[in-house]
Structures are given as structure tokens and as C-alpha cells.
Amino acid sequence: MTAMRKISGLVALLLCACQPTYNWRDIHFEGTNVTAQLPCKPDRTQRVVTIAQAQVSLQVAGCEAGDGMWVVMTGRLPAGADAAQVLQGWQTATWRTLQAQKPESQAWVAPKALPGAVRVRAQGLQPNGQATQAQGLWVAWPEGDGVQWANAMVYQTKIQGDMADTFFESIRQP
Predict the structure, then answer these.
(1) CB under 8 Å to 53, separation ≥6 — which residues?
(2) 23, 25, 146, 166: most buried by Cβ count inside 10 Å?
(3) In the chain, what percentage of residues exceed pLDDT 90?
(4) Is the pLDDT of residue 106 over 80?
(5) This prediction's pTM
(6) Is pLDDT above 60 for 12?
(7) pLDDT tens across 143-158, in order?
(8) Distance between the two ends of the chain, CA-based, in angstroms?
(9) Rounded CA gap, 134 and 40, in Å?
(10) How many domains does the chain divide into?
(11) For the chain, where are the E strands, in sequence order?
């Protein structure tokens, strides 16, 4: 092997070693005050879904890092919608889809958030049948005559608590 090939191989190895697993970046959702941090460059999508008998524009940002998937969703509920009921329904649907066993929840406190915010941990199944750990955050804030809500999820084979904490603590409405 030539010296140049050895050097090229060493440079490639060093460049790979310098790439961080988590490259945290701030994100903002258009038309809202919701901000978050994701550990990688997110893909984004938007679609209309029916929540609480109302059509809601759902914004989603997500990416893969550290053998996991990181996702933040947000939408605005119309005046009169019961935010607690909507968040509970969304949570139930999430755990049903994952076939989650015994989700463990704890109250979540966020600045300006409405009562009922919760962080939940569960063991479930990915669509391909593989076991996964999942953690989710459901939170809502009053906004004008309606409610802005967010759901953040992380799915990993083994969730790193400090990374999940960083992620969930970044979900805000300043």
C-alpha cells in the first residue's frame, strides 16, 4: 500500500470520528411560537388531520440520529376544543399503534403550558415487529382564542436518558 493510500485512509477515518452522533439544532414551526431542538437535520412535512371534530394543520419535523428517530408535531386547535381530551386521545392512539405495554407517565411542567402536560415512557413494537423503547411528550399552550399543542417522540432500541431529556426540555412556546 502506498503512503498516499495510507494517508487517505487515515484522513477518512479521522473525518468519520469527528462527525458527532448528535448535532443539535434549533427548529421553529411556521405560523406558531413553538420551538424545539432536534439532534439532526430534520425532514419536514405538513398535512391536515381531523382532531376534536376539526380540521387541523399538522406540522411535523423529524430525523434519525443515534440509532433512533426523533419527531416533533404541532397543530393549533380551534376555540372551544378540549386540549386535555385531544392530548389524551393522541397519546392513546400513539401507544395503540406501537402496541405499547404499560406506559409510565409523569406530569410535565413547561412555562405557560396548560394543565395536563405529560411525559410518557413505554416499550413497544416498530411496524417491522422489532422491539423499541419510546418516550413521548404531550403539551399545550393557550394561543389567542385557541390552543397550540405539541407532541414530541423519540424511538430507540435503548433510549439514552440525557439525550431524551435535552430533547423534551427544548420543546417550548416562548
Answers:
(1) none
(2) 146
(3) 49
(4) yes
(5) 0.83
(6) no
(7) 888 899 999 999 999 9
(8) 57
(9) 18
(10) 1
(11) 25-28, 35-38, 43-51, 54-65, 68-77, 101-107, 118-125, 131-143, 146-156
Domain that holds residue 34: 22-169
- Residue 135 belongs to some domain of the structure: yes
CATH no. for residue 57?
3.40.1000
Assigned C-alpha cell, 157: 432500541
131's CB contacts (< 8 A; 6+ apart) are 123, 124, 125, 157
DSSP per residue, 33-68? --EEEESSPPEEEEEEEEETTEEEEEEEEEEEETTE
> Which triple of cell numbers denotes residue 57?
394543520
5 lies in some domain: no
Whether 154 is covered by a domain: the verdict is yes
